[in-house]
Amino acid sequence: xxxxxxxxxxxxxxxxxxIGLGGLAAALFGPGFxxxxxxxxxxxxxxSPVSDAPSGPLVLPLLPYAYEALEPVIDAETMxxxxxxxxxxxxDNANRILASLPELAKMTPEEIVLNxxxxxxxxxxxxxxxxxxxxxxxxxxLMMAPGAGxxxxxxxxxxxxxxxxxxxxxxxxFSDAASKRFGSGWAWLVADKAGKLSVISTPNxxxxxxxxxxxxxxxxxxxxxxxxxxxxxxxxxxxxxWATVNWDFVNNQLKG
Length: 256
Ligand code: MN
Fold this sequence. Notes:
The protein is mainly alpha-helical. It has helices at 13-16, 76-98, 102-105, 109-114, 121-142, 154-164, 167-180, 227-230, 234-241, 247-255; strands spanning 185-191, 197-203, 214-220. The chain has a 3-stranded antiparallel β-sheet with strand order 2-1-3, sandwiched between helices. A hairpin with a 5-residue loop joins strand 1 and strand 2. Helix 2 (76-98) runs antiparallel to helix 5 (121-142). The protein starts with 12 loop residues before the first helix and ends with a helix. It binds manganese (II) ion (MN). Manganese (II) ion is lined by residues 82, 86, 137, 220, 222, 224-225.
């Protein structure tokens, strides 16, 4: 069985659970696929949220660290609202839409956004926004880690040098994409099918997979991601955010 997954393209969902994430990624993929016990959070991590929305097929993943773990770069209150309100709303809204689309409801989140022709036209934008929001945020939490940041290491370091010239050149390009995104959206480091890296920016919650691109690293520049601490200073948020980048996860994405 070969299915696309959030964690890694071309790797089955079951295999992808064990790519150095201690099984925490299991929580991304919903019930019936793996025991929730695999998704036990790290000590101090937020408890599994309770929702009054229709259950499944999408599930709000647990964070693999506590809400305050990324301080001082991202404050605990921002993380709590971002994860438990914003991400939860994408999951709940997606599940409400998918409740009437049984064929799509059986698919992975990536497959859903790649099979929008199977949904009535007036439901497609809702699927892009909400399943896309779920895909993007599920990745975003794993793309950051406490005590991370610094220069890239391993294969991603070599690939960045190859395709951007240097880490500094890449960092400038990515930061520009993040600061110039008008309104709400994301900056991404992506790989195409041939493995070539590029920097893109997507509006709203459009996930890179819809453009046939594998997300390696992403930065949420919706105001909800930074406004409590940084207010209108998006550039400061972008600059500080580099200290949270989880290069181990980026390397796993590159391999997958
Ligand atoms: Mn967000």
